[in-house]
Amino acid sequence: MGHVGPRYASIPVAHPRYRCTACGNLTRFTVTATRRTTAFHHFTVGGDLNVEDEEVVDERVEEVTCRWCGNGSAVVELDAGGSGEQAVPAAEGATEGGP
Predict the structure, then answer these.
(1) Does 59 map to a domain?
(2) Nearest 5°: phi and psi at 48?
(3) pLDDT (tens digit, 9 = 90+) per residue, 37-80?
(4) Is residue 42 part of a domain?
């Protein structure tokens, strides 16, 4: 008898889209973030863990680096419409709505 179900649950969180202004990349980024969550941990009699009802309480993106060219200072967060217009630099300390 093995463990049943996923060992860890995935968390559906809305993530921003990024673009590297140095090389044009829209698809591959290394995102370093700190996340605080609240979750219900359910252990089976056999000791397997199922994480249920996980909720993100706080999340901070610390750094975003382009996987194509390695540039971190040229990565920008796209606006909600994804039109390609620069909305927020994807850098530490950036506030929502502007640099």
Answers:
(1) yes
(2) -75, 140
(3) 999 999 999 999 999 999 999 999 999 999 999 998 999 999 86
(4) yes
